[in-house]
Structures are given as C-alpha cells and as structure tokens.
Amino acid sequence: MHVSELQRRAGQPSFELSAQDLGLDGAERYFSEYVGARLVVENPEFDSQDLVLRGRVTLPAVDDAPVPVALQFSADRESATVTGMVLTVDLRDGRSALRS
C-alpha cells in the first residue's frame, strides 16, 4: 500500500483495511487470527507526520464491543510505501486479551 492511499483512507468517516490492502508478508495470517476479514476503525484521527491512526475498533480476538486502538504504520525511506503496522488496543477496562 502506498502512503498516499493510507492518507486518503484515513480521511474517511471510518477507516477500513484488509490484509490484501496492506499487502505485507504475514498479514493474511495475522488478520485471520486476530482482526477478521477487515479492520474497521470508527472515528479515525490520523497523524500524517508520524503515520499513527487512532480510533475505536471491534476485534473478534478481544471482545464484541469497540475498544480504543492505535495503528502505527511504518514506511520505506522515501515515505512512499507502507512497510509495517503495529496494532495496539487498550484493555484497561478488564477485557480479556484473547477470547477462546
């Protein structure tokens, strides 16, 4: 995914991303185990300088209720292509990190 596409999507009312959209090695397995078919972030706020997107997300591996999320994207040296993503959720309200 190009950083320009990430920035375009981040400007929408909700941010949606699939493993195929991301196009990174291991993304398919990660999404299927933890995220589901699509990652949907509601009320996204995007810091284009640091490539951080914050909002609320519902993850099957966590709970069926939205939790705060921060997505930190990394890019190549030219800042043209997304090269990675770290997804951090806030579980301080006592939710289980992984459901069985």
Describe the structure.
The chain has helices at 3-10, 19-22, 27-35, and strands spanning 14-18, 38-47, 52-57, 67-75, 82-89. The chain has 100 residues and is of the alpha+beta class. Strands 1-2-3-4-5 form a 5-stranded antiparallel beta sheet. A hairpin with a 6-residue loop joins strand 4 and strand 5 (82-89). The longest helix has 9 residues, at 27-35.
Number of helices: 3
The amount of beta strand, in percent, is 35-45%
- N- and C-termini, Cα separation: 32 Å
Radius of gyration: 13 Å
Q: Can you count the beta strands?
A: 5
Average pLDDT, to the nearest integer? Answer: 88
Strand order of the largest sheet: 1-2-3-4-5
Q: Outline the low-pLDDT stretches.
A: none
- What global shape is seen? globular
Percent of residues in helices comes to: 10-25%
The class by helix and strand makeup works out as alpha+beta
Sketch the major β-sheet.
Answer: 5 strands, antiparallel
Name the helix and strand elements from N-terminus to C-terminus, one letter apiece: HEHHEEEE
Give a quick summary of the entry.
The protein is α+β, with helices and mostly antiparallel strands.
Which key phrases capture this entry?
about 20% helix; five-stranded antiparallel sheet; about 40% strand; about 100 residues; alpha+beta; 3 helices
